[in-house]
Write a structure and sequence with these properties.
Number of strands: 14
Bound molecules: S-adenosylmethionine
Pfam family, one: UPF0020
Keywords: Methyltransferase, Transferase
Structural class: alpha/beta
Mean pLDDT: 93
CATH architecture of the largest domain: 3-Layer(aba) Sandwich
Protein name: Putative RNA methylase
Largest sheet: 7 strands, mixed
InterPro entries: DNA_methylase_N6_adenine_CS (IPR002052), RlmKL-like_Mtase (IPR000241), SAM-dependent_MTases_sf (IPR029063)
GO molecular function: nucleic acid binding; tRNA (guanine) methyltransferase activity
CATH class of the largest domain: Alpha Beta
Number of helices: 8
């Protein structure tokens, strides 16, 4: 992660932060769909003039040489991909080409420089898109790696954690937690045997800290009382996947089991629920449901419930 990141601007889908660390890849930001390093900024004003001013700043910017596949320039203004005035684009491409000693390749595949404007940000940014590891195809019903990393980050991970996902499914949250040190990481899912062949490689590699159980989250017989520091989980939403009996009873049984296994002194919880069912969870979790965040997952309203003891 980025320890000294300080937020400068946030809107509904972007955050601008300052950090002393020069990022060269998106790896320290696994929760971001897209991550950029700002290399120049100017007051937004009229776009063509602003692009020319950005081009004038390129010679003194700190940029890596372009790779063999060259680079291209893209623009996103107020959330929309935007065509750029041809002459202003040429000025910018020429300045970048001289600086990174690379050719323009409009087909992509190489480095990307983005002009970024946000409605409530008074500046136009020129930013380098940080390369990201190509992620595996996400299995049907599995959480995206970015969202999984964000939910794990919301649990304030600590290297002494005994972590549990009792509805682990494709293992997306466990894989995200494995990216950081922990004392113990427990995967539980009642369908483990069926899911095992498609689990990500990080879960199939044997390591002492990772335990995998086929089991019922309502009766976690493999876990002693108060032996878990943090639960991050995405239980069945009760929409496409059925639970036995009424959803409210299921929620009450799960919440009682969380109460049993979580450390009474520093137990923490991050739970993702469909927005429609979030009130059941908040009621059953009681004081453990301290905060709720409303998010959209592929357009589907969801609620993240966060709390600690
Ligand atoms: C919403 S999915 C979790 C998806 C997971 N976060 C992922 O990214 O793949 C819910 C999971 O809970 C499991 N499940 C349902 N009822 C369960 C129970 N009583 N105990 C344990 N696992 C259960 C299902 O098999 C399913 O994999």
């Amino acid at each position: 992660m980025v320890p000294d990141a300080r937020p400068l601007f946030t809107d509904d889908s972007a955050t601008l932060v300052r950090t002393s660390r020069k990022l060269t890849s998106a790896d320290p930001l696994p929760f971001a769909n897209n991550a950029f390093r700002v290399i120049a900024k100017v007051p937004r004003g009229k776009i063509i003039g602003a692009i020319r001013k950005l081009a004038a700043q390129v010679p003194k910017a700190d940029l890596e040489p372009a790779g063999r596949q060259g680079f291209r320039v893209m623009a996103q203004l107020d959330g929309q991909l935007t065509a750029i005035d041809r002459a202003a684009r040429s000025d910018l491409e020429r300045a970048l080409s001289a600086k990174v000693r690379g050719r323009v390749s409009s087909r992509g595949g190489g480095d990307e420089y983005w002009l970024i404007g946000r409605k409530d940000l008074g500046e136009l940014l020129l930013a380098y898109r940080l390369p990201k590891q190509r992620s595996r195809k996400v299995a049907a019903g599995a959480l995206a790696p970015e969202l999984s990393s964000m939910l794990v980050a919301a649990s304030r991970p600590d290297r002494r954690d005994r972590f549990l996902d009792p509805f682990a499914g494709s293992g997306a949250l466990v894989a995200a937690r494995l990216a950081q040190p922990a004392r113990r990481i427990d995967y539980v899912d009642e369908r483990l045997d069926e899911l095992r062949p498609n689990l990500p490689d990080v879960l199939r590699r044997k390591r002492d800290s990772l335990r995998m159980f086929a089991g019922d989250a309502r009766r976690l017989t493999m876990i002693d009382d108060h032996d878990v520091d943090v639960i991050v989980t995405d239980p069945p939403w009760g929409e496409h996947e059925d639970v036995d009996g009424p959803y409210e009873t299921f929620v009450a049984d799960v919440a009682a089991e969380f109460d049993r296994v979580l450390s009474p002194r520093h137990g923490r919880l991050v739970l993702l629920s469909s927005r429609r069912r979030a009130d059941f969870w908040s009621a059953a979790l009681g004081p453990l449901a301290e905060e709720t965040l409303e998010i959209l997952i592929n357009g589907h309203p969801a609620t993240v419930i966060i709390g600690s003891r």
